[in-house]
From TrEMBL, chain A:
It is found in: Cell inner membrane; Membrane. Required for the export of heme to the periplasm for the biogenesis of c-type cytochromes. The gene is ccmC. GO terms for biological process: cytochrome complex assembly. The chain crosses the membrane at residues 21-43, 63-84, 91-113, 133-149, 161-180, 200-222. GO terms for cellular component: plasma membrane. This is Heme exporter protein C. InterPro entries: Cyt_c_assembly, Cyt_c_biogenesis_CcmC, Cyt_c_biogenesis_CcsA/CcmC. Its main location: membrane. Keywords: Cell inner membrane, Cell membrane, Cytochrome c-type biogenesis, Membrane, Transmembrane, Transmembrane helix, Transport.
TrEMBL record, chain B:
GO terms for biological process: cytochrome c biosynthetic process; cytochrome complex assembly. It is a multi-pass membrane protein. Belongs to the CcmB/CycW/HelB family. It comes from Nitrosomonas nitrosa. NCBIfam families: ccmB (TIGR01190). Required for the export of heme to the periplasm for the biogenesis of c-type cytochromes. The gene is ccmB. One of its GO terms (molecular function) is heme transmembrane transporter activity. This is Heme exporter protein B. One of its GO terms (cellular component) is plasma membrane.
Length: 246, 219
């Protein structure tokens, strides 16, 4: 059986496909979240060095992973939209940005909460923290550029260019920040020398990552649906949809 | 055509010298504000000097980005440039080079004088000027992408800073790092090599990305 992918590249058919997919991914997100939180709070043992405070990694690490991964996905779809002029790809890219920015912010925020009891400070100019902060700036730049442009097609393309420029720059920025950090002085605290993790902790973290992944899919689909409706509001099928709900 | 674009932009800048001087004086004022905010303690100022001068150079270069394309956009020259049979990337490279000659070179020349205010040793002053000499063209090149994308937008000036400043970070790190390494008595070769590498990469990619951005903005 071959699937006609082009059919779902049309915003109208994707709208309904997304509508069918959202409940499935929502249920998956809730299940993974409940299981992950249960493992995180009740099954995983207390860390003998960090006490209970380490449990913040069950949110922090998945958020940090998603923040980086979503930027790549966003740039990928934006690039596809730019190259093949497919409207839906650009809409998905636009829909990913706020979720990605939210996860970046969450990673920074939970990191600060973890840092205060562990390192005794909310913030250190560690290479990872700094590059995560810069990632947040890149997300904000992408979103504010798109928000400033009224014409959606121009917004899509301009956003795609800045997202791709960002992708080229991310490795450069990452290594610069890392070298900058070692140039000044070694960080007094290091994340890399953490003790080996218990299996239950790792399992909890992975399940929470799946929850974050499912949540992102749900949010992106929902936001894409809204964007589709907004941009296609003059078309016949949206008018039909409006008539049906009225 | 490349020479023609550079000469034209330089001529326009000479006819409107106030614009060029504004950028330079902005740079001087920002650098001079830091001692007033921090205090005249020379030991602290000497440590801060590379970072302060470099951040001020970043801001000064960024503030003048709006002029790279906006006047041509308003009077319709840009449309003619887009129609020209010469490669748009080449013409854009010319405009970037002119932007650097107008805003970057004065900063390079002025930086050692400001370094003296911060009591930098003379060897560090030379390194400061050299690092700016390699670094400021990168600022013009990357900045061109931001300037092209925000062409004709509301609040373009503030927006361009959001887009461009995160991309300037590597240049800042290694530009200021070179001066710091020199005052610490370490070699500066590694920093200059990396700055040179950034310059070459942005020389290849930035005009192309800027040309694509201009096409998007002018549709």
């Amino acid at each position: 059986m071959s699937i006609n992918w082009y059919k779902y590249a049309s915003p109208a058919s994707f709208y309904f496909l997304a509508g069918k997919m959202i409940p499935f991914f929502s249920v998956a997100a809730v299940i993974f979240l409940v299981v992950g939180l249960y493992i995180g709070f009740f099954v995983a043992p207390t860390d003998f060095q960090q006490g209970e405070a380490y449990r913040i990694i069950f949110i922090h690490v998945p958020a940090a992973w998603m923040s980086m991964f979503l930027y790549l996905v966003m740039a990928f779809w934006a690039g596809i939209g730019l190259a093949f002029n497919t409207r839906l790809s650009s809409m998905v890219a636009t829909a990913i940005a706020p979720t990605g920015a939210m996860f970046t912010f969450l990673a920074l925020w939970t990191g600060a909460w973890w840092g205060k009891p562990m390192w005794g400070t909310w913030w250190v100019w560690d290479a990872r923290l700094t590059s995560e902060l810069i990632l947040l700036f890149l997300y904000i730049g992408f979103m504010s550029l798109q928000a400033a442009i009224d014409d959606p097609r121009r917004a899509d393309k301009a956003g795609a260019i800045i997202a791709l420029v960002g992708v080229v720059n991310i490795p450069i920025i990452y290594f610069s920040v890392q070298w900058w950090n070692t140039l000044h002085q070694g960080a007094s605290v290091s994340l890399t020398q953490s003790p080996k993790m218990a299996t239950t902790m790792l399992a909890g973290m992975l399940i929470m990552s799946l929850a974050a992944w499912m949540y992102s899919i749900v949010m992106v689909l929902m936001r894409t649906r809204v964007i589709i409706l907004e941009r296609e509001r003059h078309t016949a099928w949206v008018a039909e949809l409006k008539g049906a709900t009225r | 055509m490349l020479i023609w674009v550079i000469r034209r932009d330089l001529l326009l800048a000479m006819r409107r010298q106030a614009d060029v001087l504004t950028t330079l004086f902005f740079f001087v004022i920002v650098v001079s504000l830091f001692p007033l905010g921090i205090g005249p303690e020379m030991n602290i100022l000497r440590i801060m000097a590379p970072g302060v001068v470099w951040v001020a150079a970043l801001l000064a270069s960024m503030l003048s980005l709006g002029r790279m394309f906006s006047n041509d956009y308003l009077d319709g020259t840009l449309e003619q440039i887009l129609l020209s049979p010469t490669s748009l990337s080449v013409l854009v490279l010319g405009k970037m080079f002119a932007h650097w000659l107008i805003t970057g070179v004065p900063l390079v020349l002025m930086a050692p004088v400001l370094g003296i205010q911060y009591d930098l040793p003379s060897s560090a002053l030379i390194v400061l000027a050299l690092s700016l000499l390699i670094g400021t063209p990168i600022l013009s090149l990357i900045g061109g992408i931001g300037a092209a994308l925000t062409l004709g937008l509301r609040g373009g000036g503030v927006l361009v800073s959001l887009l461009v400043l995160p991309l300037y970070i590597p240049v800042l790190i290694f530009g200021a790092g070179a001066v710091e390494a020199s005052t610490a008595g370490l070699g500066v070769d590694a920093h200059f090599s990396l700055l040179g590498a950034f310059l070459l990469v942005s020389l290849v990619l930035a005009p192309w990305a800027t040309a694509a951005s201009l096409r998007v903005s002018m549709e």
